[in-house]
Design a protein that fits this description.
The protein has 135 residues and is of the alpha+beta class. It is 36% helix and 21% strand. The N and C termini lie far apart (59 Å).
């Protein structure tokens, strides 16, 4: 009986540790979103990434459009477009600092655009460009 009580307490301790870990660090989905936000800030301020142009062309290693003082240079400024994102295989984020941008982490079917891309939106809603990523 002592052994089964010990096993019960061990299982309870593991479960509690899991609950605490999820509360502190978030679930696996939020890890991907946090990584995508950091990558979006880096991609549009420091490192060149693929730029998608509205007519569907891909500009590889396009110069970053933002400066370090831009609000979008901080990962917390980016928000997930949940209507399009589908977990770790495709995450779409948006940010606006006067101009609006969409960032896509994931590959695009049928295009040689690398693993992350960005596009400048025509208006603040990014509706037309978001529909393009939703394909």
């Amino acid at each position: 009986m002592r052994g089964s009580i010990g096993v019960g307490f061990g299982i309870a301790a593991l479960f509690a540790a899991g609950v605490v870990a999820v509360a502190l660090f978030g679930d696996h989905q939020s890890w991907f979103v946090r990584a995508a936000k950091a990558n979006a800030a880096r991609c549009l301020t420091v490192s060149p990434c693929s730029r998608l142009v509205a007519n569907g062309k891909v500009m590889t290693k396009a110069p970053p459009p933002l400066i370090a003082a831009s609000p979008c240079a901080k990962p917390v400024a980016w928000t997930e477009v949940t209507a399009i994102s589908s977990g770790p295989t495709k995450i779409v984020l948006t940010c606006s600092d006067g101009a609006a941008y969409l960032y896509h982490m994931g590959t695009l079917a049928g295009r040689e655009a690398g693993g992350e891309q960005w596009i400048a939106c025509k208006d603040a809603s990014c509706r037309a460009e978001a529909a393009w990523f939703g394909r």
